[in-house]
Amino acid sequence: MQIDPASDRPPFEQVRVGIIDLIESGELLSGERLPTVRALASRLGVAANTVARSYRELEAAGVIETRGRQGSFIKAGRHDALDAGFAAAKQYVETARELGLDDSVIVEILNRALGRT
Predict the structure, then answer these.
(1) Which intervals hold domain HTH gntR-type (predicted)?
(2) Taking the model in full, what pTM does it have?
């Protein structure tokens, strides 16, 4: 996502539409965590208030949800199979971590399951 300073559309609107476009393309899935307001603002070269406004509008529209200190997450998705797959992968990672496996082992197990090793 990029902000076009020459656009007729204000930056907060470009961010809002950009996030919706990423959801519709399947690049952002239901349950996926968004960058913090400050991180996204820094990445896009805009003020934190610009991103905060976009997030507020997306939350009011039911597209994202904010979970306090945990951050903001995609609430509404467009790709049922991808969303379900992402949810299953998140559950697998949580279970594997509860079993005491570190991330490198989790990735190795996934690679083996995919037949890559």
Answers:
(1) 9-77
(2) 0.69
Q: Are 64 and 75 contacting, i.e. CB atoms less than 8 angstroms apart?
A: yes
**Pairing mode, strands 72-74 and 64-66:** antiparallel
The residue count of the chain comes to: 117
When pLDDT is cut at 50, 70 and 90, the band that residue 29 belongs to is: confident
Hey, is 48 helix, strand or coil? helix
Rounded to whole angstroms, what are the CA distances from 94 to 28, 88, 91? Answer: 20, 10, 5
Task: Compute the average pLDDT of residues 6-35.
Answer: 90
**Residue indicated by tokens 């049922």:** 80
> Would you say 51 and 44 are in contact if contact means Cβ atoms under 8 Å apart?
yes
DSSP output for 74-92:
E---S-HHHHHHHHHHHHH
Nearest one of 98, 116, 97, 115 to 106, comparing CA atoms: 97
CB 94 within 8 A of CB 88: no
Question: What distance, in Å, lies between the first and last C-alpha atoms of the chain?
Answer: 34
